[in-house]
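Ticket reopened. Same input as before:
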Amino acid sequence: MRISPGQLLAFFGRRLAYSAVVLFGVLVLVFLIVQLVPGDPIRLALGTRYTQEAYDALLHASGLDKPLGQQFISYVGNALTGDLGVSFRTGEPVTELLMQRLPATISLAVVGIVIALVISIPAGIWSALHEGKVSDGIIRITSQFGVSIPDFWMGMLLILLFSTTWGLLPSSGYVPMSEDVVGWLERVILPGLTVGLVAAAIMTRYIRGAVLEVAAMSYVRTARSKGLAGSVVVRRHILRNALIPVLTIAGIQFATILGGVIVVEVVFAWPGLGRLVYESVAARDYSMIQGSVLLIAVMFLLVNLVVDVLYAVVDPRIRLS
Amino acid sequence: MSEPREEVLAATEIEERFGTAPVDHSLEAPGRMSAVRLLGSNPVTVASAIVLAVVVLLALLAPWVAPYGINEVDVANALQPPSGEHWFGTDDLGRDVFSRVIVAARVSLQVALISVTFAFVVGVTIGLISGYVGRFLDTVLMRIVDVMFAFPVLLLALAIVAILQPGMATTMLAIGIVYTPIFARVARASTLSVRNEPYVQVSRTMGTPARTIIGRHVLPNITGPLIVQTSLSLAFAILSEAALSFLGLGIQPPAPSWGGMLFNAQGFLSQAWWMSVFPGAAIFVTVLAFNLIGDGLRDVLDPKQRTLIEARRKR
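Engineering reply: fixed in the latest deploy. New output:
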């Protein structure tokens, strides 16, 4: 089946418009965070000891003294141009602080997703192709363990084993890769494993399901009944078609790790976005909270958009539906 | 060739002719029986149910079962390893870890139950309306759900905690709100698939009000996926509560919570492994039981549902 470039463009257009609608909703929600605080968010952020001048300056800088509609318009306008205001606590630009944290989070997410893929793809495929056998049972139970374990507890156990008991790896901290590759690697292993193993468990279950679903399709039965070798059927008919759901789950997991490993970053004192979110919530630094929540949601949307576009490139059936 | 039939049919006759609605009680009873029997034949599900029953029982009886008071400080006996006297050891203030773990079970289960009930009621209502009414309302409601899905679960929960004050009520509300969209999606998807069934269409052409159709035809037919989702959501709600409490933004001390105990244990990793191992194991076992029961339920009630949704909601 040939797809015209027009159809492809139309699909991308629709998908982009959808993302724009969701992005607008995200902006509304993030804007509302400060508005919904019962009481005065600036007073809450400043704590008990502050001068009237400091209060007025922050009130003015945050724009909270303007009418609501005007606030929203300028918030959206500024956010779209990358200006997320200044921190209620330090007065530094939010965007700058976020960008400082981004590399640590991205490097952790990449390590985590690589570990997850390396484990889950073979495990999931093996499990599905050996459905009902002992090895399938072991993989299923192990993956259920991984889904049920609290990630921060697993992080603590890893620290307990690898650093306090055996003294093999540092328990926490971060060194940028550009400064010291070995130091970075030593410190990224434990948080990377924590994040990766949990993601691997989730992905294994999903990949197993995807492969099983394809294996039950009638075209697979046809391929087998026309006498194709088992390995050819698996490679050409089952795995190729199961690739698409695998792509989805990998994308979703990557996005989730990118924006969601708050607790793991706290356990390992990893100076990423997640820990920044935690610190700003604890400090009631509302502009920081808004900024980091917005950035994470936007990254989430972007990864999903990329996955969907890749999908359409890989599988023509999706563009038409 | 049969003659064209033009007689007016009674409601029951219509149902007979166009396929009986699955709420027919003579059919329902054996169906349920076999579902229970199927569940009972799965040893993993049975074992999980027993484990869960023990956890629930311990939680309910915690005040009577706990050998020590949860805030009974005994500094002379601080950081004692597990022994006959203190099964799970003592913490940095000499408090009995075992007693705290079982009392915390009560808190965790309570938070999970209330927040998932909230998510269920609100989410299913939204999903039913969205799926049944369709059109513009569906579009608006589903875009709102999409927006909520753009945030990782814990991030959204943290944002809610940041707006309100940390505490038990906020924790329950935050987790409840976070898990609402998933119920809305599950309910909507199931409603859509039931909405165009012949027996629903017939009912509609007969002028049955929408409320009755939803209550009598749609709701009973979407319970399978919803029951499965409830079990899985309880597992995730416990994980979320533990994470929030671990960050100090969920259940506030002196009330014990598994997450809070783990936070406290962090400073004593090298001196007192028992402080971190037992509360964590309690979370793990409880969540595992809910997940395995959810799996077992899915095999019986909703075999076609895929794990994507579940995968999406872990963190």
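Confidence is low (pLDDT under 50) at residues 1-31, 306-315 of chain B. Chain B touches chain A through 50 residues (CB under 8 Å). Please confirm and we'll close it.
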